[in-house]
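Re: [ENG-882] Designed sequences occasionally contain unexpected residues at chain ends

Forwarding the minimal case from QA. Structure tokens:
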């Protein structure tokens, strides 16, 4: 957020003279989204894999001025998508300086602001609020109260002498304070049903009720929410009247192809070492295999965060090996994938009856992903010279204490190794660690196709005849 531009009006009179007319939040988003679409601008930065499915539905809902609920399994980017909505707001919007609800200077709604506007007229002071301040997010928890969302009587104000029926005794909750902004409620079904009822008036009549007092505040908010599909969540449900008030219910999904899965990992993962594209493809396929496996509880889903955590784990294993061997730069190799199953098995749920076999299933699905990636990378490439060289006694050892140059020195000079590196996107003059990563992938493919043997212990893996 940058500083407020000096050229912006500072009083209601100057604001009126400059032509700043009040504009509903739905109209503001409608206009800005329409402008972005016409100009070919990216209205959804950082959102991957939804361009042909979710985003068109969301854009239609916003252009219609609808409140929206996103339904999807965990880790599908629902919250990230909601947070990008703030980018569709005007960068700066005028508010009455000091107002509790951020009211428009030319359209006050609370008794206090209406009184100030009448007294000061064109001299009413104006402040400016950045769009990032107009997005409010609340994680729904079972202990959330009506007072948190809507408001409650403030005992301090009552003690000052005001009557309970005085609107100025109200301490406003999160929704009224988001007036002229966006309210996002994560995991909406987690709200108790009696709390969800409190949102009915906000969404339909756009007013609020506190302790039996109806405050006719023409609130202007866009209410968006996320939820898991009700057919598998046991935590709660969205009550029917509230669901009816959402103008659009949009289903999200996991990335539909390997390229989108890799793009999500590249964007979200904090990698402490270099992880090449082939290994990221392995992890993307691994996650997709998990989502299709019958031993995994698909009702709970396999989050995109699993792939991100897997990539970070592989990078950390590479960095550790770099520290042990002194090899620079730190580059991940297929041997680092061995760390993934044991570290991340707690992030997914297995079907009943699979207790004790979790690692076995994960290793099997990971090997499938390695084989699929290697076949795709080395399709049409004759690896027999490499298999023959290893089978004739050029054993290749790798592991957490084996640098990449040792992997390469164990093999004779073979033209096929240059082709292997090229298929993995590595040039011949690049560091040994990157070339070794490509060679290891080829060796692992030969092992998985039963053309080589592999002997492993806790620290070392040996490829041989």
């Amino acid at each position: 957020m940058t500083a407020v531009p000096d050229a912006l009006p500072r009083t209601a009179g100057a604001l009126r003279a400059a032509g700043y007319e009040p504009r509903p939040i739905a109209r503001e988003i409608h206009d800005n989204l329409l402008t972005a679409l016409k100009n070919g601008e990216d209205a959804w930065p950082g959102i991957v894999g939804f361009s042909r499915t979710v985003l068109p539905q969301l854009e239609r809902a916003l252009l219609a001025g609808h409140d929206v609920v996103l339904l999807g399994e965990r880790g599908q980017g629902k919250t990230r998508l909601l947070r990008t909505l703030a980018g569709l707001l005007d960068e700066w919007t005028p508010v009455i300086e000091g107002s509790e609800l951020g009211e428009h200077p030319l359209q006050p709604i609370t008794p206090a602001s209406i009184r100030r506007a009448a007294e000061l007229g064109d001299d009413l002071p104006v402040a400016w609020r950045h769009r990032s301040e107009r997005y409010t997010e609340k994680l729904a928890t079972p202990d959330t109260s009506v007072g948190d969302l809507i408001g409650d009587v403030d005992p301090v104000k009552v003690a000052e002498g005001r009557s309970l029926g005085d609107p100025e005794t109200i301490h406003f909750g999160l929704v009224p304070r988001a007036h002229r902004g966006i309210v996002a409620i994560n995991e909406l079904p987690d709200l108790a049903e009696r709390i969800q009822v409190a949102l009915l008036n906000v969404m339909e009549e756009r007013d609020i009720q506190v302790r039996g007092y109806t405050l006719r505040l023409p609130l202007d908010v866009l209410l968006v929410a996320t939820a898991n599909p009700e057919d598998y969540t046991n935590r709660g449900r969205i009550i029917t009247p509230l669901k009816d008030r959402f103008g659009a219910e949009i289903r999200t999904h996991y990335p539909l192809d390997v390229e989108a899965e890799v793009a999500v990992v590249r964007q979200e993962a904090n990698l402490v070492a270099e992880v090449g594209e082939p290994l990221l493809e392995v992890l993307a396929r691994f996650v997709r295999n998990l989502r299709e496996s019958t031993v995994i509880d698909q009702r709970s889903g396999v989050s995109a965060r699993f792939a991100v955590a897997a990539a970070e784990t592989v990078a950390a294993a590479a960095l550790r090996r770099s520290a042990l061997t002194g090899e620079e730069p730190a580059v991940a190799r297929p041997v680092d994938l061995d760390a993934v199953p044991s570290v991340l098995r707690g992030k997914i749920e297995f079907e009943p009856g699979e207790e004790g076999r979790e690692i076995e299933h994960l290793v099997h699905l990971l090997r499938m992903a390695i084989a699929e990636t290697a076949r795709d990378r080395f399709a049409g490439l004759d690896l027999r010279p490499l298999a023959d060289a290893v089978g004739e006694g050029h054993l290749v050892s790798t592991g957490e204490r084996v640098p990449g140059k040792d992997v390469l020195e164990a093999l004779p000079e073979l033209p096929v190794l240059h082709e292997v590196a090229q298929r993995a996107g590595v040039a011949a003059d690049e560091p040994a660690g990157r070339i070794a990563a490509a060679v290891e992938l080829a060796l692992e493919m030969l092992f998985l196709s039963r053309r080589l043997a592999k002997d492993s212990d806790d620290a070392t893996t040996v490829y041989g005849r």
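QA comment: On inspection the terminal residues look reasonable. The CA atoms of residues 318 and 457 lie 18 Å apart. Proposing we downgrade this to a documentation issue.
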